[in-house]
Amino acid sequence: MDVLKSLLLTIHSWLHLLPGFSIIEEYVLNILDYIRLKVNSSCEAYSLEAWQIILLSVAVFVATQWLWDFIFSGEGAVAKVKKAVFRWVRKIPYVQRQIQTEVSKTAKSMQDSFAKDLKPGMSFIRKLPFYGNSSDEVCRLAETYKSMRSLEFNRGRASGTLYNGGEELTELNGQIYKMFAWTNPLHGDVFPDIRKMEAEVVQMCISMFNGGSEACGTMTSGGTESIMLACKAYRDRAIRQGIKHPDMVVPRSAHAAFEKACQTFGIKFIPVPADPVTMKVDVRKMKKLITRNTCMLVGSTPDFPTGVMDPIEEISALGAKYNIPVHVDACLGGFLIPFMEKAGYPLPLFDFRLPGVTSISCDTHKYGFAPKGSSVVLYSSVEMRRYQYYVITDWPGGIYATPTFGGSRPGAIIAACWATMVHYGETGYINTTRKIIDTARYIKQEVAEIPGLFVYGDPLVSVIAIGSLDFNIFRLTEALTKRGWSLNALQFPSCFHICCTLLHTLPGVADEFLADVRECTAVIMADPQQKATGMAALYGMSQTIPDRSLVGELVMEYLDALYDTSYSSKSPSMSNGHATHS
Asked: Residue 70: is its pLDDT beyond 70?
């Protein structure tokens, strides 16, 4: 204590050497003395005892801390106030009854919809068969399950969903999967083949995105995991730097996985609106939302809703200026945009050639044509990747370390991904990219000329978002659904999009889609103000509900229905793998 006191006195004597310091010191001391006298006089006036003063001080501190957390942590004050009001309103008995009635109707409607998928004689297997089935019996049963599909998705009738589906690639993946069915990269010493394949997949993707000698990455189970791992890495980096409450500044149009990561890892989600004309993120607003707690910035190439590419060069410059990591989400376009220049469609820079870009997520299972369940997350340096790892050193079972969320992972998926990339090669991907972009540009141009419709922004890759200023766009979505198309309905703003895949490049598919769009739009334009019904009305209504928690509750009913096994067809049932008759 004597040493500390001596140090403080020395610093004080040095400060007195500064010109004007004595005047400032006297002024500050006078203010503090004034505050002291006012507080003391107030306590005497109200006859406050020492214990009351202490209690009041603690109460003020707690209230201030709560108010600070309420305003600055999590969703923000406005969102929290809205949720609190809606929670209070929903406690009113009449409101409770009305909500429960509607929720029950929705749940029943979903169950009835799923029940229609069951073929005559079908029910659910609810427990293990007492006796196992032969391989032939299992295959026959699987064929009956497969017959439940109604959409001809392999004919290009679905937006996204199936990105290749070619028989040659399906056969190759089947052979590779059979060779590596029981492998697990968790045991890299036991399966050096899978270890080598995974490393090569990552390195091939690094090369695609022009990574330097320090660039690295890992494979993941899909785009959501790739995104969440990058968010986890930057959160941990921020905490290491002393940031207690990290936030991320993200385009509102970015994938929902970023918000999922915020909910999972306790990061504050700060959305940035898009320019209403270009649909790109507004970089000026992004700059204004950066705080000392910002742990990452995000841009999409392209985004999922409208297919527009964010200005990555500008976002990268922001990141470099403020020393904030920049993540580029290329999950959707990751196996298109690296090849577009060689396919005749040059783009602005979006990859590791930009100094501010520190990570990229890229789905191999979309336009890379690998089987579902494979993606990569790439980093500009090993240092960044290490924040992604999970390392448990004190577990009684031994030192436990994994590069991603999962422990055991399917080596066969890694092998099939590797086989697909090696099979296609750069030339193969350039060719498929050219076909897909040609088709997407053709659809974009033709849709823009249809009376009553417009295309959002200037999509440069494979997604075209379609809207209307004349009628409820979901009426068109519903009409196209009745004609056998599966499209993505979107909100804020109301529109739908088609995500072009290799299947849409098949002869006649794009023209068939455009013909149906023209015919359905012409019918709707004959009476554009007609009230929407069915799913069109449901989509429109969902956006007008101010209590988003109610929308969330309805969606949870859908998720519950996915696992519901309580219903069956009214025809002869199938139980425990064997057909039976009741």
From this structure: no
